[in-house]
Amino acid sequence: MFYEICEILMLVCFGFSWPLNAIKSYKARTTKGKSLPFVLLILTGYVFGITGKLVNPNGYHWYVMAVYLLNFFFVSIDLALYFRNLRLDKRAAVK
Known about the structure:
Structural class: mainly alpha
Order of helices and strands: HHH
Shape: elongated
Largest sheet: none
Number of strands: 0
Strand content: under 5%
Oligomer: single chain
Helix content: over 70%
Number of helices: 3
Low-confidence stretches: none
């Protein structure tokens, strides 16, 4: 149980920044300062974390999975905003 609390706290610490990062991306309206490989690497890490929980022979607790899924959701929003901002950057470069 202690290891799950530690894992949740780690995920909360990492995950707390993603909504803030998505808001910053939305307001910035540019990809400058963003790294697509970094965002994809984070998403891949969450996929492995979720997969690890699903295939664990001891099962998983829903609250740990919920934090993984919430973090994945917010990083996915940031990824979508990256592509929106990339489109806006290209449009601004044409003008």
